[in-house]
Amino acid sequence: MDRRAYLRAVGGLSTVGLAGCSGLVAEQGTGSQAYDVGMSSSAFRPARIEIDPGETVVWRNTSSHAHTVTAYEDAIPADAAYFASGDSDSQTAAEEGWRQGSEGALYQGDEYEWTFEVPGEHHYFCVPHEQAGMAGTVVVGDTETESTE
């Protein structure tokens, strides 16, 4: 059994067992979860995650509101591929897709994953909740070391 499948099964059992514990499972962050970033009604949890190049981040909608994962086109490394739930190829396309029919929407329990190859900071947001401050950052590699070399 692969790691994510195992963690998904264990996480599902934990969710049932902790159903009355005020969202504890969604707030725990990484480690024992089958996902790396959860989503509350207006925040990514955690808002900042650090990974190595080549690692995959899994976002799971852990709230009852629809969300997106949408890269800020001008706030990802120049050589990095654009990422967005719904597979839009630009920030403008992702925002228009959401407005025209909730394209890229992740509903409760839905997941989106992306493999980050290019070191640096990759900033992203949720289209319908950007005004509420729902934004996050994936830091790939050690950006402090890279910027001083």
Tell me what the structure shows.
This protein is of the alpha/beta class and 149 residues long. It has a single domain (35-148), classed as Immunoglobulin-like (Sandwich). The protein is 23% helix and 23% strand. The protein has helices at residues 3-17, 24-27, 91-99, 143-148; strands at residues 37-39, 44-45, 48-51, 55-60, 70-71, 111-116, 120-125, 135-140. β1 and β2 (44-45) form a beta hairpin.
Spans of at least 5 consecutive residues whose pLDDT stays below 50 are 1-32, 145-149
CATH-defined topology: Immunoglobulin-like
The share of residues in extended strands comes to 15-25%
Radius of gyration, in Å, reads 15 Å
Fraction in helix: 10-25%
Write the layout of secondary structure elements.
Elements: H1 3-17, H2 24-27, E1 37-39, E2 44-45, E3 48-51, E4 55-60, E5 70-71, H3 91-99, E6 111-116, E7 120-125, E8 135-140, H4 143-148
Parallel strand pairs: 1-4, 3-8
Antiparallel strand pairs: 1-2, 4-6, 5-7, 7-8
Spell out the key features of this protein.
Immunoglobulin-like; 149 residues; alpha/beta; disordered C terminus; 4-stranded mixed β-sheet
What can be said about this structure in brief?
It is built from 4 helices and 8 strands. It is an alpha/beta fold.
